[in-house]
Amino acid sequence: YIHDRNIIHCDIKPENLFLFLTDHRLRANVYLTKIGEFGLAMEKGLIKYGDGTGHMRGTARYVAPELMSHGIVNFGTDVWAFGCTVLEMLTGELV
């Protein structure tokens, strides 16, 4: 949804994902996942990323390699972070 609006979250991690029960009347619990905390989000196409001092912002263990090494921000940045989050969910271990 946010990528369709040219927004890159830049800090997807378990602490920023929220589950909501969609309809308690259903026999099976159906949850909707929403992303919160858009403090580091940016519009696609902006060149600079960081806090203005040359330091990277975000949670290091979820930062995509291309962002860490070259400061490149794109939709793949969020995909990488989501992949790290799913890996943690499946293994129960921090990435």
TrEMBL record:
Signal peptide positions (record): none
The Protein kinase domain, residue ranges: 1-95
Pfam families per record: Pkinase
MF GO annotations: ATP binding; protein kinase activity
GO BP terms in the entry: signal transduction
PANTHER family according to UniProt: CCR4-NOT TRANSCRIPTIONAL COMPLEX SUBUNIT CAF120-RELATED (PTHR48011), PROTEIN KINASE SUPERFAMILY PROTEIN (PTHR48011:SF85)
Name of the protein: Protein kinase domain-containing protein
Species of origin: Eutrema salsugineum (Saltwater cress)
